Amino acid sequence: MSITGWLTDPANWSGPDGIPTQVLTHLELSAVALAIALVLGVPAGLLIGHTGRGSVLVGGLANALRALPTLGVLMIAVLLITPRITSDLAFTIPSLLVLVLLAVPPILTNTYAGVFAVDAAAVDAARGMGLRRRDILLRVQLPCALPLMLSGIRAAALQIIATATVAAYVSLGGLGRYLIDGLAQSDYAQMAGGAILVAALALVVELVLLGLARLAVSPGLTRRVSPRSPRSLPATPKAPAQ
């Protein structure tokens, strides 16, 4: 069967193992992993960027987490958790652990860099107006750092979606099932179709996150608002003749 034939086969679009079900499972696993990574990475990045303490650890921690072998961590986690948990959580927790470890570095690094790079003059002006440290962080530094933060979140989301296929190695669902099952059955059309679906899903998520970022970020930070030209200003009324 050709790749096009596999993708257009109605049998692959229905049932518990159909493409819609596997896409939904893939998205659910990815969303949970991204939510956990946001809870861990964003507060830590804001705190380090605001205080400047622990900034040396950001680069080292990010590089260390990126260097971890995905499948190795997954298998070790499964071996450690399976004897203690007998439900499907024995495979879900290791999969989430791997995805979270991949997603935290870009979120943490970009959040820290965005807050740390805020113009010192803006922070001094806010401090001079009597704002407290928490207000300076939430009302000055956080809005200015938002574009870089969202960029890190987009990068983390794409890494999660691409890597969530490893869940199929431990018998979980998702689009990785087509890759693993296709390899086991020597069904290369199924393997290629699964890879295309993963790439398409990542592209759709990227476009959605770009749209949300465009709505969330102030136009002034992205330079989408240009200053009014002198010709667009209202004409100054002439003084009445004496």
Q: Which features characterize this protein?
A:
mainly alpha; elongated
- Report the radius of gyration as a whole number of Å: 24 Å
Order of helices and strands: HHHHHHHHHH
Helix content: over 70%
Give the count of helical stretches. Answer: 10
Instruction: Please tell me what the overall shape is.
Output: elongated
Calculate the terminal CA-CA distance, rounded to whole Å: 92 Å
**Structural category:** mainly alpha
Give the percentage of residues in beta strands: under 5%
Q: Can you offer a commentary on this structure?
A:
The chain is mainly alpha-helical and 242 residues long. It has helices at 3-8, 19-51, 55-66, 70-81, 89-116, 120-128, 133-163, 176-184, 188-216, 219-222. Helix 2 (19-51) packs antiparallel against helix 7 (133-163) and helix 3 (55-66) runs antiparallel to helix 5 (89-116). It is elongated. The N and C termini lie far apart (92 Å).
